[in-house]
Amino acid sequence: MLPLTFSNLADYDCLRSDDQISLLRLSQLAPKRPVIMVVNSKNGRWEITISHTFNKEQIAYFLAGSVLNLMALKTAEGKQRAVSTL
């Protein structure tokens, strides 16, 4: 789960329950870097800037899918490095 807040609080009132949203470039998520939300509605398409408070470590957890997934990836990478040095 990625907790997000509207950079401009008034943007919240522009959304309708039948709008479709997309978040752009989540794979490029970085600390203090805003996320762009694209809104497709009956009234057109527009972009909203939204913010997060994740640090670098929390972003790594998010991108891996969970802390456990990230730990498994790091363990597998460590084992692979150990085998490649033999």
Q: Mind explaining what this structure looks like?
A:
The chain is of the alpha+beta class and 86 residues long. It has 2 helices and 4 strands, in the order ββββαα. A 4-stranded antiparallel sheet has the order 1-4-3-2, with no helix packed on it. The longest helix is centred in the C-terminal third of the chain and has 18 residues. It starts with a strand and ends with a helix. The model has no long low-confidence stretch (mean pLDDT 89).
For the structure shown, list the relevant keywords.
alpha+beta, four-stranded antiparallel sheet, 31% helix
What's the SSE pattern? Answer: EEEEHH
Number of helices: 2
Amino- and carboxy-terminal Cα gap: 40 Å
Strand percentage lies at: 25-35%
Counting DSSP E segments of at least 2 residues, the number of strands comes to 4
Helix content: 25-40%
Shape: elongated
Segments where pLDDT lies below 50 for 5+ residues? none
Overall structural domain count = 1
In short:
The protein is of the alpha+beta class and 86 residues long.
Break the fold down into its secondary structure elements and pairings:
Blueprint: E1 5-6, E2 20-24, E3 35-41, E4 44-51, H1 56-64, H2 67-84
Antiparallel strand pairs: 1-4, 2-3, 3-4
